[in-house]
Every structure is written in structure tokens, then in C-alpha cells.
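peptidylprolyl isomerase
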Amino acid sequence: MGDAIDLSGDGGVLKEIVRRAKPDAVSPSDDLPVVDVHYEGILAEDGHVFDTTREDNLVFSFELGSGSVIRSWDIALKTMKVGEVAKITCKPEYAYGSGGSPPDIPPNATLIFEVELVACRPRKGASVGSVSEDRARLEDLKKQREMAAAAKEDDKKKREEAKAAAAARIQAKLDAKKGQGKGKVISYHTSHFMISFVRDYKLHHWMITNLNMDEVDMPAL
């Protein structure tokens, strides 16, 4: 919607407004330090989304200035209004630095966040503990989603195996029926081969079978 604003003064935290808030919307302050946000975190290098609250629709809550988030968030969220959506680009020194945050964020990674400020409220009723609980619930929901996906894949595999087994049983029955004679069989052995005369009442023909199981039709009797 507009040019990026250099919030840190050194290019370390850039903010671009994606959607403006209403003119009378409030901003975080000393009286309203606790914020609720939706966000999507992206690695600038390859566009990989490493974290999001959108899938579970659970806002992330924290207190500005408490040290519970990366520096760029403390800097950027103070400039936002409720209802605003902003794209925040963070250099490593304002994010996770040279250590990164394994396994999702590599060392010295520049990050891009699309953040929506959903609400800001007083400190009363909020604490660092409640923020941790919100984050824990988000992680729990992610694990549940992963477990559900794994269970779904396992069920699919079992269904495919069951279908294959059923098909094999049906084929075995067909092969068994194909090998059964419907008439009378008279057999005798010679030193080189066995001859079986088969009288088929439906087809009315004779078959002679050698040791290689080759079939040759004989004229009908």
C-alpha cells in the first residue's frame, strides 16, 4: 500500500502497511501493553512459511517490552493500530541473530512477518505466564494436526492393503476354478508324459495336456 518505513533507523526493521486501520483505532501504549496478533512468519531467502496462527485461528498474545518476543516485534507493534495489517521485514540482528532458532529458522536469517493487530488491552488479567499458555496451546494444536494427518495417512495405507489382499483372494479363487475339470478324467502315465482325457459337457470337446500344461483342442466327439 505504501513504501516501507525504516522503523529502526538502520534498515534492520522495515514496515509496510498492507491494510490500514480505521482512523479512530487505538494503538498499544503503557496503558494498553498487551496485544493480540495474528501473524505469518516467512523466511526471506526462500519464502518458506515457518510459523502461522492462521491455520488454527488462535491469536498470539504477549506484553510489549517484556522481552517475550524478538526486538523487531516490540519496535513494530508499537507503531500499529488495531485492525492494521503490516508486513515487517527483520534483519537477523533484530530477529534470531547468528544462532537462529532450529529447526525452523537458520542462523543469520532475515525474516518477513505479516502481522495483524487484533486487539490491545491493559496489563490486568495478563501475565507472562498467560502468554506462555497461549503459545503452548498453539503448539499443542499443531501437534494434534500433525497426528491427525499421520493417522489419516495410516488409514489410507491400510485400506489400500486390504483392497490388494481382497483382489488377491478373488484372483486365487478364479485360478482354482479355472484349474478344476467339470467332466470325468481318465489318466494314465507313460515314461515321457501323462495324458488326461477330459470330457466337457458344455463345450463338447477333448483336451490333451502334456507336462508343460499346454492345451490343444481336439475335434468334438
